[in-house]
Amino acid sequence: MWTDALQNFFSFIRPVLEIGVLAWFFYRFYEAIAQTKAQQIIRVFVTLFSAYALSYILKLEVLLWFFKNITIPTAIFICIVYQPELRRSFTQLWSGRSRIFRIGTQTTSGDQIDSILNACNVLVNKRRGALIVFPRRLGIKNIIDSGTRVNADLSTSLILTVFDHDTPLHDGAMVIQNGRIVAAGCYLPLSEQTDIKKSFGTRHRAALGMAEESDAVVLVVSEETGAISMTYNANLYYDLDPLTIKRMLLALFSYHDITPEELQQEASSDEAE
Ligand SMILES: Nc1ncnc2c1ncn2[C@@H]1O[C@H](COP(=O)(O)OP(=O)(O)OP(=O)(O)O)[C@@H](O)[C@H]1O
């Protein structure tokens, strides 16, 4: 009797489990893709699938033959043409916004963020540029290996020393993780976005590229304008004030992905209460 009940239970739960896992997977995949240019790929697939379904329902034999024969070449073509977008989507899928993938941690404290922002303000006044990367869940060993390992306690003076002109490490990016300066002089991937402002040079392009390739947060101090900007999730937020940066960093380090506009809305609704 028990085995019958168990069998009945499993035969009920199995399809629920299968549908649940598939729905979760497709939702996560869509969520990752919706943030990137790979949504164009989804549109192509949806259009092709709709056309195929219509041909099937209306029994349009010639169109059905056509769709059957173009499926594999189209899939290969899309994988080749959209390879960077697909790679980014998968990276975001596994780095994810889901708690399940929260393996790594970034525990840079509020005081340490203050030290970083103090350094940024001094750099702004001295008209020096800087690029600081905060890895989150995804490891960025390849980026760290492209520079020089520092592995030192975080301090305003060390950041200033690194980004001062004529120091061997001022060219490139600094990596800060868990309140420590892990490396400096690191090379970041450049963004391939074409709709980025023409006035942005390679420093901003590198910050954006890093935010496209990984879930890291990047701070950029512009040597030319003195603006402090931030990139993450393939977006660049230009010229932010120090308080916004601090609040955003704290939120982002605790995996609460937030934009400056959302932060302002939260602050104004807190004031209203
Ligand atoms: N791929 C890269 N990885 C890390 N750092 C980079 C990379 N490309 C450029 N940089 C840094 O950016 C500096 C050049 O900045 P550039 O003036 O071209 O950029 P920008 O976006 O106009 O910034 P700024 O507003 O500070 O002038 C380089 O000296 C180097 O330190």
UniProtKB/TrEMBL annotation:
Pfam families: DAC. Keywords: ATP-binding, Cell inner membrane, Cell membrane, Membrane, Nucleotide-binding, Nucleotidyltransferase, Transferase, Transmembrane, Transmembrane helix. Its EC number is 2.7.7.85. One of its GO terms (molecular function) is ATP binding. Probably a homodimer. The chain crosses the membrane at residues 12-29, 41-58, 64-82. It comes from Sphaerochaeta pleomorpha (strain ATCC BAA-1885 / DSM 22778 / Grapes). Belongs to the adenylate cyclase family. DacA/CdaA subfamily. It catalyses: 2 ATP = 3',3'-c-di-AMP + 2 diphosphate. Catalyzes the condensation of 2 ATP molecules into cyclic di-AMP (c-di-AMP), a second messenger used to regulate differing processes in different bacteria. This is Diadenylate cyclase. It comes from the Bacteria. Residues 83-242 form the DAC domain. It is an enzyme of class 2 (transferase). One of its GO terms (biological process) is cAMP biosynthetic process. PROSITE patterns: DAC.
